[in-house]
Design brief:
The complex is a heterodimer. Helices cover about 45% and strands about 10% of the residues of chain A. By secondary structure, chain A is of the alpha+beta class. Chain A folds into two domains: about 10-65, no CATH class; about 75-155, 3-Layer(aba) Sandwich (Glutaredoxin). A four-stranded mixed β-sheet of chain A has the order 2-1-3-4, with helices on one face. In chain A, helix 1 packs antiparallel against helix 2 (about 25-35) and helix 3 crosses helix 4. Chain A is elongated and about 50 Å long. Chain A starts with 8 loop residues before the first helix and ends with a helix. By secondary structure, chain B is α/β, with parallel strands linked by helices. In chain B, about 40% of the residues lie in helices and about 15% in strands. Chain B contains 21 helices and 16 strands. Chain B has helices at about 10-15, 20-30, 75-80, 100, 120-125, 130-135, 140-150, 160-170, 190-200, 200-215, 230-245, 275-280, 310-320, 325-330, 360-370, 400-405, 425-440, 445-465, 470-485, 490-495, 495-505, and strands at about 5, 35-40, 55-60, 60-65, 90, 175-180, 220-225, 260-265, 305-310, 330, 335, 340-345, 350-355, 380-385, 390, 415-420. In chain B, the strands form four sheets. Chain B has a five-stranded mixed β-sheet with strand order 2-1-3-4-5, with helices on one face. Classes of the chains: A alpha+beta, B alpha/beta. At the A-B interface, helix 2, helix 4 and helix 5 of A face helix 1, strand 12, strand 16 and helix 17 of B. The complex binds flavin mononucleotide (FMN), iron/sulfur cluster (SF4) and FE2/S2 (inorganic) cluster (2 copies). One FE2/S2 (inorganic) cluster (FES) binds near residues 84 and 126 of chain A.
């Protein structure tokens, strides 16, 4: 389980300022904010734009371009299930259906109790031990329904 | 460093199947056995069906056990401590296992053997000999050595590395960059990850040599965010190299300056495309740039930039150490040297297999890979990631070679092979290829952005048996438009998996099967 600090514009400003002089600082800044708060609040956009001398639209454009960046707080646990070809060849689609049914959400969704967000990922480089997934940044592979159930139980589901 | 050396891979694939738990169990059990142990988190040897595979250093060399579960940890440790003694999971000398023994490991020579975070270990196993030789040569001669070796880009396009370096070397500028493409987005591939986790100094050495050869003092490794282990190991190795004065203002005591940093991607497949990657590094959306200008002329921040895949750069040290002729003598035709091939999907023996170009697809899948893991017949094999073609068994005689694959309407890409058994539905695979393109398109060109979405709809209609003949013709048309009207290979190559599925497996699209005689 990942625990994040509650959103706070002042500490966000400090994080942004710390990285502002890196060449191409925007991605490292967004990563750092998400690492701290679990997502990037709208409130950060004008601040980043101002400090990096960009338009707010440019910042928003980058934020929304990349699949990794979240604009809303994530659930307590994030399960990324690989849905790319090698995992498909080892039954990941059945596993994906099982996960969605058990959590009663579609991919991209969060359970009603806010415990788990289910996301697709397209290859984790664990194709030799497919099917694979990542739970809160930890890799797990050679998954089957039983192993997945154990993981979800640990995440409180 | 006084205890018995026990190797428990820290490679993400081993960790994903329990290696961390085994390392913890070993540490806990060691005092009970009365022996001090020294656990090394090595990379993986690449025999992934045996992971977690642990090894112990004995008087007779290394002895392996695998696949070890947490439940076996105590008994395996006991056997290992008895000078590599008997156990049902004992595999003996790992280098005698045919899968490993029959390989030609040049790029992966040290992976799985050394402690990836130890500069001393790297040196003790031949590391930095390539740089030592490069430092005694003229920069132009280093570039020429790479050209003569025949090394081609391992990221997918197969462009001659030496020519790319020469273009950057010949472009005058106050600042040049070496960028390593570690975005490794292709499904079925993991060789870049394994090198970064198992032998990161070889990549650092390769980038340093590249910097000296073209006159670049700064390097940057763009690693995908899905690879936290690789990021951590490479960060540590860079710090160790700086401390050992192998990076910094005077590399290895020479007048050359070179330093490196790691940048992390943010989950966009298209950022593996070199110009999109450069935009991403500059803090922008990862949009593909039109070429020219070439990155070698105007790359990162507008400066001349060499951008190479991890494997291309990690192969540079052995070429410098042993000479261009040594490397060029392996391989076939215009594909020189070795290729780290990655076997994945439904295959009995998945893992990393480095071998000279020329081995056939059938040998790789049936003999080396052992056929399917499910025990069912192999039906289709996708080579080269999500933009690579699906091959039927009738094409298993195609040799692993850039030109031979192109002739068979496919590509070897980054060397990933994904095996499917006879339960696969090729219309679904074709649909996924289009869907993936739609999800990952950077949006710059219409054939890719809109065509892929239309492609999904058309395949859905074919699957639903609506106007099959007309929709199949439409799909072929659409593929042609994408192939010739896209700026980069995402839109341009998505037709490969789609058309190969349609051509070789028409029965899955409701058409009569291809005649056996045509195969
Ligand atoms: C959509 C797309 C994705 C790509 N992804 C990667 C990648 O993940 N890694 C890589 O090395 N090259 C990738 N490439 C190829 C790069 O554009 C480029 O050819 C390569 O980095 C050059 O290095 P090399 O000559 O050493 O292969 C991709 C290309 C396209 C069109
Ligand atoms: S083909 Fe697709 S990914 Fe490539 S530049 Fe065009 S829109 Fe972007
Ligand atoms: S395809 Fe799932 S980990 Fe690579
Ligand atoms: S060298 Fe990597 S961004 Fe500056």
């Amino acid at each position: 389980m990942s625990s994040y600090a509650p959103w706070d514009i002042e500490s966000a400003r400090a994080i942004i300022a710390e990285k502002q002089s890196m060449p191409g600082a925007l991605l490292p800044i967004l990563h750092a904010l998400q690492e701290e708060f679990g997502y990037i609040d709208r409130e950060a956009e004008p601040v980043i734009a101002d400090i990096l001398n960009l338009s707010r639209a440019e910042v928003h454009g980058v934020l929304t371009f990349y699949h990794d960046f979240r604009q809303k707080p994530a659930a307590r646990h994030v399960l990324k299930l690989c849905r790319a070809e090698s995992c498909q060849a080892r039954g990941s689609e059945a596993l994906a259906a099982h996960a969605a049914a058990r959590l009663r959400i579609a991919f991209g969704g969060t359970t009603a109790d806010g415990s788990v967000t289910l996301e697709p990922v397209y290859c984790l480089g664990l194709c030799s031990v497919s099917p694979a997934a990542m739970l809160d940044g930890r890799v797990v592979a050679r998954l089957d329904e039983r192993k997945l159930d154990t993981l979800l139980a640990k995440a409180g589901r | 460093m006084s205890g018995l050396r026990i190797y428990v891979p820290g490679d993400a694939a081993a960790v994903a199947v329990g290696a961390d738990e085994i390392a913890v169990a070993f540490k806990a059990a060691a005092p009970r056995n009365g022996t001090a142990i020294d656990i090394v988190r090595n990379g993986s040897r690449g025999l992934h069906w045996l992971e977690p595979m642990v090894e112990v250093a004995t008087s007779a060399g290394r002895i392996a056990y695998g696949p070890v579960t947490a439940a076996d940890a105590a008994t395996v440790l006991k056997a290992a401590l008895a000078n590599g003694g008997d156990h049902p999971l004992r595999l003996g000398d790992p280098e005698e296992i045919p899968f490993l023994k029959n390989q030609t490991r040049l790029t992966f020579a040290r992976c799985g053997i050394i402690d990836p975070r130890s500069l001393d270990d790297y040196r003790a196993h031949g590391g930095y000999k390539g740089l030592a030789r490069a430092l005694q040569m003229q920069a132009a001669a280093v570039v020429e050595e790479i050209t003569q070796s025949g090394l081609r880009g391992r990221g997918g396009a197969g462009f001659p590395t030496g020519i790319k370096w020469k273009t950057a070397a010949d472009t005058a500028a106050d600042q040049k960059y070496i960028v390593c493409n570690a975005d490794e987005g292709d499904s079925g591939t993991f060789a870049d990850r394994m090198i970064m986790e198992g032998d990161p100094f070889v990549l650092i050495e390769g980038m340093t040599i590249a910097g000296i050869a073209v006159g670049a003092t700064k390097g940057c490794v763009y690693i995908r965010s899905e690879y936290p282990h690789a990021i951590a190991v490479l960060d540590d190795a860079i710090a160790a190299a700086r401390k050992g004065r192998m990076l910094g203002t005077r590399v290895a005591g020479s007048p050359h300056a070179f330093d490196l940093e790691v940048r992390v991607g943010a989950g966009a497949y298209v950022c593996g495309e070199e110009t999109a990657l450069l935009d991403s590094l500059e803090g922008k959306r990862g949009m593909v740039r039109a070429k020219p200008p070439l990155p070698a002329h105007k790359g990162l921040f507008g400066k001349p930039t060499v951008i190479n895949n991890v494997l291309s750069l990690a192969t540079v040290p052995v070429i410098l150490e042993k000479g261009a002729a040594f490397y060029r003598d392996f391989g076939m035709g215009k594909s020189r040297g070795t290729m780290p091939i990655q076997l994945a999907g439904n295959v009995k023996y998945p893992g990393l297999y480095e071998t000279a170009f020329g081995v056939t697809l059938g040998e790789l899948v049936e003999d080396i890979g052992g056929g399917t893991a499910s025990g069912r017949p192999v039906r289709a094999v996708q080579v080269g990631g999500p933009l690579g073609a699906y091959f039927p068994r009738s094409l298993f005689n195609v040799p692993f070679d850039y030109e031979a694959f192109a002739k068979a309407d496919g590509l070897i890409g980054h060397g990933g092979i994904v095996v499917f058994d006879d339960t696969v539905d090729m219309a679904k695979q074709a649909r996924f290829a289009m869907e993936f393109c739609a999800i990952e398109s950077c949006g710059k060109c219409t054939p890719c952005r809109v065509g892929s979405t239309r492609g999904v709809e058309v395949i859905d209609r074919i699957i639903a048996n609506r106007d099959r003949a007309a929709n199949t013709a439409l799909l072929e048309d659409l593929c042609n438009t994408m192939k010739f009207g896209s700026l980069c290979a995402l839109g341009g190559f998505t037709p490969y998996p789609v058309m190969s599925a349609l051509t070789h497996f028409p029965e899955d699209f409701g058409a009569p099967p291809r005649l056996a005689a045509a195969e």
